[in-house]
Specification:
alpha/beta, 4-stranded parallel β-sheet
Length: about 130
């Protein structure tokens, strides 16, 4: 009986220490997620820093990343609308829930620009932000 309990404890202690597999859609979101999750997560990004996330080509390798993910963090605001839905469908990952969209709780850049608080490009264009 004690041996069975010991084996069960070993098994469950390994399960609780497993890292959460997270996929971020862009390199920016990957950097933020890395700062928050640290060593507790296994993190990968779909779009690299040099690629334009508006016009990314959906590749089977991206579907594999999503297939193995526990959590997906995306920008929202239609940034990934051209490629992310097909990647999610192609991954066949029903356990990847919840999906976090960072824009769900944020105001859009257009709303902020209309309020004349800042220009939208100031946030994404470092030379203008200076």
């Amino acid at each position: 009986m004690k041996q069975l309990l010991f084996i069960a404890l070993l098994f469950f202690s390994g399960v609780t220490q497993a890292k959460l597999r997270v996929v971020a859609t862009t390199a920016d979101i990957q950097a933020i997620t890395r700062a928050v999750g640290g060593d507790l997560i296994e993190l990968t990004s779909i779009a690299k820093g040099s690629s334009d996330p508006h016009f990314l080509e959906a590749k089977p390798s991206f579907m594999i990343k999503l297939r193995d993910a526990d959590l997906l963090i995306s920008n929202g605001l239609s940034l990934e609308i051209g490629w992310l839905p097909s990647l999610i469908r192609g991954s066949h990952n029903s356990k990847m829930n919840p999906r976090v969209q960072l824009s769900n709780r944020a105001r859009s850049f257009n709303h902020v620009a209309r309020a004349k608080l800042c220009q939208p490009n100031r946030i994404v264009n470092p030379p203008i932000a200076r």
